[in-house]
Design brief:
Pfam families: AhpC-TSA (PF00578). The protein has 167 residues and is an alpha+beta fold. The chain contains 6 helices and 9 strands, in the order αβββααβαβαββββα.
Length: 167
């Protein structure tokens, strides 16, 4: 750990433990329009719930744009795409407008959703440790059960891989 950084035992031990067959944790968060969204709002549809670190960064932009490009394909399969990051709703509005994103973006500023899904973890970059989102995607069936978990996702080409798992 870097000299000035301390993490709680919970932070140090957090990891993605959810797997296929588990009930997806329910959540409530604001979308870019400041409207509250619950996971249960999408019962009866497949949910692609992807967690990403930050709007307007190269990898996150690639991932979001690829999900948006395949939006109609996901919709044809009765699936909804939801991106979650710690960014504010206002930042999501800017991100969505700049790149013409079609899918839902949720704000998780308090990291409660990310913690519930185990993706808010200690990360290392250039010798520094910090808390952040580990890029992860959950496929959730129409009854709210996890079908598949994609861990430590590489942004480029990921949306197409998710689509292949639904087809």
């Amino acid at each position: 750990m870097s000299e000035n950084t301390t993490f709680s035992k919970e932070d140090l031990e957090r990891k993605v433990t959810l797997s296929a067959g588990d009930k997806a944790p329910e959540f409530r968060a604001k979308n870019a329009d400041e409207v509250s969204v619950n996971l249960s709002d999408f019962r009866g549809r497949t949910v692609i719930l992807y967690f990403y670190p930050k709007d307007m960064t190269p990898g996150c932009t690639t991932e979001a744009c690829e999900f948006s490009e395949l939006y109609d394909d996901f919709r044809a399969l009765n699936a909804v795409v939801i991106g979650v990051s710690p960014d504010s709703s206002e930042k999501h509005v800017q991100f969505g407008k700049k790149y013409g994103l079609k899918h839902i973006l949720l704000s998780d500023e308090d990291h409660e959703i990310s913690k519930a899904y185990g993706v808010w973890q200690v990360k290392k970059n250039y010798g520094k440790e910090y808390l952040g989102i580990v890029r992860t995607t959950f496929l959730i069936d129409k009854n709210g059960n996890i079908i598949k978990v994609f861990k430590s996702v590489k942004a480029a080409g990921h949306a197409a891989k998710v689509l292949e798992n639904l087809s």
